[in-house]
Amino acid sequence: MCPQRGSECARVLGLRSVVYVIACGGEVKRASKFVPGFGEPVSCSIMKKSLKIVVIGDGACGKTSLILAQSGGPFSEDYTPTAFDDYAIEALINGKTKILTVCDTAGEDDFSSLRPLSYPDTDVFILCYSVERPESIRRLRDKWIPEIKQFCPHTPMLVVGNKKDIRDEIERRRRHPHADDPAPPKVVDLHEASECAQEFSSFNLIECSAKTREGVRKVFETAINAAVAFRSKQQNKVLESIMKLKLVF
């Protein structure tokens, strides 16, 4: 896909940016540069072909960095609060082009009444916690998962731990300690996070790092597969309903 088409896609989709991804069966093969754009409302004809991924979790847990890492965008240690940003990923899945709409949501409580407006028609949720903040995994259980179940009880969820590089660095220092090393910070217990994923998700826990890019590709491959399966299931339900109506009339 050429940059000119990317800009046109951004204009038509009304999204903040366009990311190009080649995927086969949900496997992400390639992603090119981050292309800014904003424009008109999404057209119905395109939306029928799109898959929607919503990324949620506490503020500063790495949601935006995760999306930018997949898009090839720059990594920054600085935190800029997100209101609501949408990104588009064009993917070739099982020989068909799909537009993956990735919604980056605000994690602050000030947006609690507005955030659910981005939930309708979601095909998969990526629930994020930050490895360096133990309270963020508990917030998944206490806030984010109940919120999803309230508005989208049947939509699949993927539990993802961001900032895995911090856990890796702590483990490296544990294996090769030095006398002047500071006390290691508390991090999310991996067993607790795995239990959360097993209890509320059909998929295994994935931890990744936007800084090193480790695990980012796996997150989106898994999300794409989940979204495709969910959309197919929903379409089959619609077809079954249509067939039942035909039998009635």
TrEMBL record:
<keyword id="KW-0342">GTP-binding</keyword>
<keyword id="KW-0547">Nucleotide-binding</keyword>
<dbReference type="GO" id="GO:0007264">
    <property type="term" value="P:small GTPase-mediated signal transduction"/>
</dbReference>
<dbReference type="InterPro" id="IPR027417">
    <property type="entry name" value="P-loop_NTPase"/>
</dbReference>
<dbReference type="InterPro" id="IPR005225">
    <property type="entry name" value="Small_GTP-bd"/>
</dbReference>
<dbReference type="Pfam" id="PF00071">
    <property type="entry name" value="Ras"/>
</dbReference>
<protein>
    <recommendedName>
        <fullName>Ras-like GTP-binding protein Rho1</fullName>
    </recommendedName>
</protein>
<dbReference type="InterPro" id="IPR001806">
    <property type="entry name" value="Small_GTPase"/>
</dbReference>
<dbReference type="InterPro" id="IPR003578">
    <property type="entry name" value="Small_GTPase_Rho"/>
</dbReference>
<dbReference type="GO" id="GO:0003924">
    <property type="term" value="F:GTPase activity"/>
</dbReference>
<dbReference type="GO" id="GO:0005525">
    <property type="term" value="F:GTP binding"/>
</dbReference>
<comment type="similarity">
    <text>Belongs to the small GTPase superfamily. Rho family.</text>
</comment>
